């Protein structure tokens, strides 16, 4: 009886009590968060929320709406959570995955995004980001918004300021052998997200304040007044000289987190994920989440409503996980005790 009580306490009560203390915040969260695996909790949440019929329907709907990247994302989530897909869904997805289908789906949107700096789908976002990375987009936006500034019209200080920061980052990237690349990428992604309307009001306000601290707009206006903004080469030379005085120190941590998010997902997903960001801390949390879930991050957020990995570790899920662990450990102990008892019987028989 004493052995049973010991096993019960160690295998059942102890882990359950530990999980309860963790959920109540009595145990330091970060250390335990790193130790507890995320995958079982996320997978269980998905299976509980999304029936197979709904997942299949979502993939088909995405394909019929020309949202191929969303369809692929949902299929990846289905595989991750072991949610079965019908053969019809798999066949439909395969038919849209051919090279010819992808070329027809993306070519027009890419060039539209490259020329105008705006996009509404994955290809358009990539085109817009590509134009910024070649500084064409920055010079184009400086000419467009700078003209409004000089003429006293309403202009976007957000886009104009970030474009100047982008040129400064491009120069610094070359000078440092790539050291300023995160800022260069971060500027491009932020501008595209702003044009796409995926930046929240709170985060836009925070970024707008930091951009105004980095860029002296009265001095910029004086610089732009002296040049022909229709001459892209002249615009770039003039702004390049001005941009040397721009300090991005307060923006760099944000750009670094955006670049990390881009590496763990992809550029178009960063643009879409920004609608879940109100603060720099939200951005850092999304980066941690995407480090575990990759391009599935946005889909899992949309399906579960949870924007952090810790949110999946609810008391219910923690207790279920603890119970699974306890049952597994109990089975191991039972096997060990049974083997030990069998050896004892064998010894007595031989004696």
Could you give a short description of this structure?
This protein is mainly α and 351 residues long. The protein is 76% helix and 0% strand. It folds into two domains: 2-99 and 312-350, no CATH class; 105-278, no CATH class.
Protein described:
- With 351 residues, this protein is mainly α.
- It folds into two domains: 2-99 and 312-350, no CATH class; 105-278, no CATH class.
- The chain contains 19 helices and no strands.
- Helix 7 packs across helix 8 (122-133), helix 9 runs antiparallel to helix 10 and helix 10 (157-175) packs antiparallel against helix 11.
- The longest helix is centred in the last third of the chain and has 36 residues, at 315-350.
- The model has no long low-confidence stretch (mean pLDDT 81).
| Radius of gyration from CA coordinates | 27 Å
Number of strands: 0
Please tell me what the overall shape is.
globular
Oligomer: single chain
Mean pLDDT: 81
> How many structural domains are formed by the residues?
2
Question: How are the elements arranged and paired?
Answer:
Layout: H1 2-23, H2 29-35, H3 39-49, H4 52-64, H5 68-80, H6 87-95, H7 99-116, H8 122-133, H9 136-150, H10 157-175, H11 181-196, H12 201-214, H13 217-225, H14 232-243, H15 252-264, H16 267-273, H17 280-293, H18 297-304, H19 315-350
Helix pairs in contact: 1-19, 4-5, 7-8, 8-11, 8-16, 9-10, 10-11, 10-12, 10-14, 11-15, 11-16, 15-16, 15-17
């Amino acid at each position: 009886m004493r052995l049973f009580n010991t096993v019960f306490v160690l295998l059942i009560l102890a882990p359950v009590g530990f999980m309860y203390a963790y959920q109540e915040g009595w145990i330091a969260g970060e250390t335990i968060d790193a130790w507890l695996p995320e995958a079982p909790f996320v997978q269980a949440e998905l299976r509980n929320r999304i029936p197979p019929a709904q997942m299949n329907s979502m993939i088909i709907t995405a394909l019929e709406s020309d949202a191929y990247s969303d369809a692929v994302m949902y299929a990846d989530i289905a595989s991750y959570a072991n949610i079965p897909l019908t053969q019809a869904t798999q066949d439909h997805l395969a038919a849209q995955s051919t090279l010819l289908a992808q070329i027809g789906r993306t070519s027009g949107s890419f060039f539209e995004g490259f020329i105008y700096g705006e996009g509404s789908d994955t290809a358009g976002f990539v085109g817009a980001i590509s134009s910024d990375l070649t500084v064409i987009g920055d010079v184009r936006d400086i000419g467009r918004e700078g003209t409004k500034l000089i003429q006293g019209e309403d202009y976007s200080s957000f886009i104009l300021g970030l474009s100047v920061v982008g040129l400064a980052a491009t120069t610094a990237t070359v000078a440092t052998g790539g050291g300023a690349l995160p800022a260069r990428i971060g500027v491009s992604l932020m501008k595209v997200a702003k044009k796409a309307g995926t930046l929240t009001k709170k985060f836009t306000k925070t970024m707008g304040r930091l951009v105004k601290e980095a860029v002296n707009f009265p001095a910029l206006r004086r610089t732009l007044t002296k040049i022909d903004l229709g001459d892209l080469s002249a615009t770039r030379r003039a702004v390049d000289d001005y941009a040397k005085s721009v300090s991005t120190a307060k923006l760099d941590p944000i750009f670094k987190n955006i670049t990390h998010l881009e590496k763990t997902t992809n550029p178009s997903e960063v643009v879409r994920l920004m609608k879940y960001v109100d603060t720099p801390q939200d951005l850092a949390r999304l980066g941690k989440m995407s480090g575990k879930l990759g391009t599935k991050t946005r889909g899992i957020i949309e399906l579960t409503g949870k924007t952090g990995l810790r949110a999946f570790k609810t008391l219910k899920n923690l207790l279920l996980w603890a119970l699974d662990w306890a049952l597994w450990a109990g089975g191991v102990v039972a096997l060990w005790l049974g083997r030990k008892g069998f050896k004892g019987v064998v010894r007595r028989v031989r004696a």
